[in-house]
Write a structure and sequence with these properties.
Length: 156
């Protein structure tokens, strides 16, 4: 991450190379996370809120919302500082939810740059990354890709 007179800057488009691998810090999912997220989005599904109901389920216990896990992944990536003041637009994502995340599980993110393409209309380019969200035991719980428009380095 670079420092400018206006503060730290993230990674520019020119800094992204196909094959780059980035690994985030980790975060443990708590019951409070699930309760707060459910309250914010209005999803009180028994999968997340009813411990007795879930004892008899295929999971045996409550699970975190898939979108909670994905949201934490974006936060973990943001904490790396790579996107600070350089992301111009988020294009989209495509994800598969592969395994449950339980209260007490710890996740981290592993990203690999799989495509870079200069924009013909904007001063920057599109960066697409393959993304894995992984639990403490090595289980990939979500996998997919996301793309963003990243600013070019000034004067390049």
């Amino acid at each position: 991450m670079q420092q400018t007179a206006q503060g730290p800057m993230g990674q520019f488009f020119e800094d992204s190379q196909v094959g780059d691998v980035i690994i985030s810090a980790s975060r443990t999912i708590t019951e409070a996370d699930i309760v707060n997220f459910g309250g914010i989005i209005g999803d009180y599904n028994p999968l997340h809120f009813d411990a007795e109901y879930m004892k008899a389920s295929m999971f045996g216990q409550r699970i975190a919302h898939g979108m909670l896990t994905l949201s934490f992944a974006t936060g973990l990536v943001n904490q790396l500082g790579l996107n600070h003041k350089t992301v111009m637009a988020f294009k989209g994502l495509e994800f598969e939810f592969k395994a449950p995340v339980f209260i007490g599980d710890t996740i981290h993110v592993e990203m690999t740059t799989i495509e870079t393409r200069a924009s013909s209309k904007m001063p920057g380019g599109w960066v697409t990354q393959s993304v894995k969200i992984i639990k403490q035991d090595g289980t990939v719980v979500q996998e997919g890709k996301w793309s963003a428009l990243i600013a070019s380095r000034p004067n390049s």
